[in-house]
Amino acid sequence: MMIKIIVKTIFCLVLAVVLAGCDGIVPIRKQQEPVEQISIHLYESFQPAEIRILPLTGAIDDGKTQKISVFVSPVDASGICQKWPAVFRFELYERVARSAEPVGRRIKLWPDIDLTDSVRNNKYWQDFLRAYKFSLDIEHSNIQNYILKTTCILVNEKRLTAQTPIKPVIQKNSSQ
After folding, report:
1. What's the CA gap between 31 and 23, in Å, rounded?
2. Phi, psi of 4 (to 5 degrees)
3. How many CB atoms lie within 10 A of CB 145?
4. DSSP assignments along the chain, one per residue
5. I need a surface site. Which of 67, 73, 131, 161 has the fewest CB within 10 A?
6. How far apart are CA 112 and CA 104, in angstroms?
7. What is the pLDDT of residues 13-71, one digit of tens each?
């Protein structure tokens, strides 16, 4: 009789464990995403979501050459400006006055500036401004206004663009 009670008790316990599952008894390793997928997702969540051209951007004329000094901040989804490996492309367009679409014909396309190398990236980064500084040569021109379009190409081929109006510097005559 005692054996029947022990057998029934063991049978009930085994049945209870099988029905309840083994989660509470033996720790089972949950299925996780591969490390590569986690790091890519984490990486992409910190990458820039937009670029901003700072108001310091403008034309400079030293009498010999005319340049456009451009200050660009890559900004993540939280609004934090940060240094990031990317390729920058700059295009200069005529500005069409009194038009719904102010971007006219393209005047100049500079060669891409590749900042995926850390040494080169640091050369352009202005930490106190939290922005990159670029100096773009242009030829003297009689065009009244320009539009500078900046494209930032991230390492995953995502493209961010921004544009800003640029007014040429009025040259001062030495006789004035």
Report:
1. 14
2. -65, -40
3. 15
4. -HHHHHHHHHHHHHHHHHHH-STTTSPPPPP---HHHHHHHHHHHHSEEEEEE-TT-EEEE-SS-EEEEEEEEEEETTS-B----EEEEEEEEEEPTT-SS-EEEEEEEPPPEE--SHHHHHHHEETTTTEEEEEEEE-----S-EEEEEEEEETTS-EEEEEEEEPPPPPPPTT-
5. 161
6. 21
7. 777 776 666 555 555 555 565 656 666 666 677 889 999 999 999 888 777 788 899 99
